[in-house]
Design a protein that fits this description.
Length: 112
């Protein structure tokens, strides 16, 4: 099983990033997928969750209206579109499958 995140980077406040998590080794289309984030000194927190049918199951209150989670079951990939980014969104972002598999994370830094 592999989950590989990409799309992180340095962006100015108000900017946008699109994270991708490409998976292999399991039947992606059967499982809910999640995005978590962890800032330095903080606990890892759930940001967004999407069920196998593509419905958003959860969005953290602080990202509602700014972040969108989506998936492409044909590409075994889940996305996190992040708009209107704020410095407090800076963290390492991880994807996680419902069965408990984690990716290695991708760094997002929001700074001027």
């Amino acid at each position: 099983v592999q989950l590989v995140e990409s799309g992180g980077g340095l962006v100015q406040p108000g900017g946008s990033l699109r994270l991708s998590c490409t998976t292999s080794g399991f039947t992606f289309s059967l499982y809910t997928m999640n995005w978590y984030r962890q800032a330095p000194g903080e606990e890892r927190e759930l940001v967004a969750s999407i069920n196998n049918s593509g419905e958003t199951a959860y969005l953290k209150d602080s990202v509602k209206g700014r972040f969108t989670i989506s998936r492409d079951n044909a590409k075994n990939t889940v996305y996190l579109q992040m708009n209107s980014l704020k410095p407090e969104d800076s963290a390492v972002y991880y994807c996680k499958s419902r069965q408990g598999y984690w990716g290695q994370g991708t760094q997002v830094t929001v700074s001027s």
